[in-house]
Amino acid sequence: xxxxxxxxxxxxxxxxxxxxxxxxxxxxxxxxxxxxxxxxxxxxxxxxxxxxxxxxxxxxxxxxxxxxxxxxxxxxxxxxxxxxxxxxxxxxxxxxxxxxxxxxxxxxxxxxxxxxxxxxxxxxxxxxxxxxxxxxxxxxxxxxxxxxxxxxxxxxxxxxxxxxxxxxxxxxxxxxxxxxxxxxxxxxxxxxxxxxxxxxxxxxxxxxxxxxxxxxxx
Length: 218
Fold this sequence. Notes:
Elements: H1 15-26, E1 31-33, E2 45-51, E3 70-74, E4 77-78, E5 85-86, H2 90-104, E6 112-118, H3 121-135, H4 162-166, H5 181-197, E7 214-215
Parallel strand pairs: 1-7
Antiparallel strand pairs: 1-6, 2-3, 2-6, 4-5
Helix pairs in contact: 1-3
Protein name: Restriction endonuclease
Organism: Streptomyces camponoticapitis
Pfam family, one: RE_Eco29kI
């Protein structure tokens, strides 16, 4: 009996393959300390935040893995106001805001790192989706609200976010508390445990963090 055989199929320009290529390239970028103010740089693209410490028990299992706690992007074109507005420093501005949120949330900023890759907006979309689907970052999922903009006068009745419930302290107005911190922490611990268990199942090869330089800002 003749064995069945079918050649492999590969489309290097498929949306899925492009996303995997972006994510692999992204993870070859150095981790950069957030302890000091981040020097300003131009450009749009993809970024992610990582925990590299030991003092926060919740995040300690992630401190030697590529798993980000948050993934996002900064777009050079912003049409939220109804017209296209070109921004020179979108990734930098996002990272600067996130650095302040981490500090105000009572977390040790010296134990956090970021990496970034400048990309056209359309490719940053693919990369962000790849990281979010592949890693399911905690602050994008179980502890939502970290990347939200500060509430304006017309929206200050919004409820307190999951992230702000667990990491209270940001200088922003909140409405009522609708989440239980203990329940969120328990769900976050289970989520991180699953991330660790699924670490080797990604569709792109993720390099060992030990071989990539951890840059501090002088």
